[in-house]
Amino acid sequence: MDSSVILTMLDELADASSLEDAFALSQKFFREIDYRYNDFSILSKDTDQTIKVVASNNSGLMHTLWPINEVLIPLCEKGSCTVERNTSPPWLEVQVARVRDQIHSAHLVDVDGFVLMFSRWAEPAFSSHDEEIISQVTPLLRQLVSVLKTHLGVLESDQRHSLSVASENEKRFRVYAELASDWFWESDEALNYTILSPNQKTTFQGFDGLAGKTLFDIRAKSETRLLKKWNHFLYLTNKHLPFKNFEFEIEVPGGNRWISISGQPTFDDSDGFTGYLGTATDITYIKQRELEINTAKQGAEKANAAKSQFIAVMSHELRTPLNVVLGNLELLLQTQLDNEQQSMLEFTQTSTKLLQAIISDVLDFSKIEAGTLDIEKEVVDPVKLVNEVVAQFQRQAEMKGLALNIVFESTVDEKVFISAIRVAQVLFNLIGNAIKFTDKGEVVVSIEQISKKLVFSVKDTGCGIDNADHGKVFKPFEQVAENPKKRREGAGLGLSISQRLVELMKGEIKFTSSPNKGSTFTFSFHSFPCLNRYLLMLKPITRIVKRDPLPF
Q: Which of 50, 349, 466, 487 lies 20 to 30 A from 13 at CA?
């Protein structure tokens, strides 16, 4: 036996970085020891007198695994070994049985809690020569045991630390679970709930809750009518699929409650379905708030509808006497008047027309909100329609020194089926605003056909709109001007009404504007060209009733 080689190996063992490396080096150590025995092992003896293989020179007979094997051999009495058949895996029983059947004699040496086992398979029995060899090998093995114990101690320390960390984490997460508003659950393959965290007691308020039950056992009677929702839930659970935020109402003492539940399927090692685990949240408060909000919303909608109906009726009643007043003013202006009388009547006429325009806007706005405004379509020459509307603003534009021009493309259909009255109303609002907010330059009204859409534009060179005010343009009762202190006449409903009218015609309206550079308002919608053979089938065009431009 070369002791220098053995000592070198022991040094390597001492420097081994892990217990696994130490075991591997111990196998080399065994192979270098020259002795007459067929088997040599280092065993760990437990308090119950069972021994575990720590290392062995015969891996075919005494298997050494990582980590240390389960119990292989019980130490019944010194010098004899038997197989513990109740706890050993079958493949290990065969191997150990072979060792036991062929061992004729064995010598065990107790070293600091470890057992050194020397065994031989043939005669003669142990002699004085055997004792001499054992005495030579034992000191070296004691050093080996010392090295292995050091590594085992490190391993046990690491294991204790890991267990301590795991225990602390378990405590921490237990606190989290108790503080969380959610609660946790597990169910078996039949969806009976088996594990529930303590927080569920708050939801069920003394009721037994879900333990041993399914969702179907505790759902409220109202839930049985929601077939689509529950059929989808059954589909997911029958297919063993996850589900998330499934909301349902349950019946508990003291009043029903709402729960939102999420679950993930679980499977065993052979991919067999074992049930679900997941979380649940009591959402009763949220559902109560939703109900209150919906109730308040319905009440507000009813009140708004009543308000719109009232305004519509009152506005209609106000327009009748105003028309009489305007008619009488027209007659008075045709009589012999001095300058002062003429001026007073003209001022009264202007104010009355302004009041009439405001009432008309309020009436239209209330009809739109109440859903009673009709969009009647008819056969229209779109270019002629634009000319008729623009003609009513020529005098107003001339009085301000503005050019009012019309531009149209030759591709525009001659006859289309649209709502002439509502298109004219939008043009009235846009052209009136353009002239009102333009002090010099021009206003250009254009019409073009883009694919199957009619596109109307009104462009001016007026004061423009600041970027910060773009969001207010289509809001009712909002007015935007170059000088915020200079309030313009009107109710601030024109653009809001225009937007609603365009939307009712399934179109869109938009604008571009910059301060001191003017604005361009554009609205468009789908139109349908009318061929000659269809004209007799359609309602003839209704002449656009002349509407006086606003007197400002």
A: 50
The string of pLDDT tens digits covering residues 295-343 is: 898 888 888 777 777 776 776 677 778 888 888 888 888 888 888 888 8
* pLDDT (0 to 100) of residue 141: 63
Q: How many residues in the chain?
A: 552
pLDDT at 175: 67
The number of helix segments (H) and strand segments (E) in the chain equals 14, 17
Nearest to 185 by CA among 130, 254, 266: 266
| Rounded Cα distance, 552 and 548, in Å | 11
In degrees, rounded to 5, the angle at the alpha carbon of residue 105 between the alpha carbons of residues 99 and 110 is 90
pTM above 0.70, yes or no: no
Q: Find all residues with CB under 8 Å of 111, minimum gap 6, and list them.
A: 138, 141, 142, 145
DSSP annotation string for 77-136: BTTB----TTTS-HHHHHHHHHHHHH-SEEEEEEETTEEEEEEESSSS---HHHHHHHHH
Structural domains present in the chain: 3-156 (3.30.450), 183-282 (3.30.450.20), 289-370 (1.10.287.130), 378-535 (3.30.565.10)
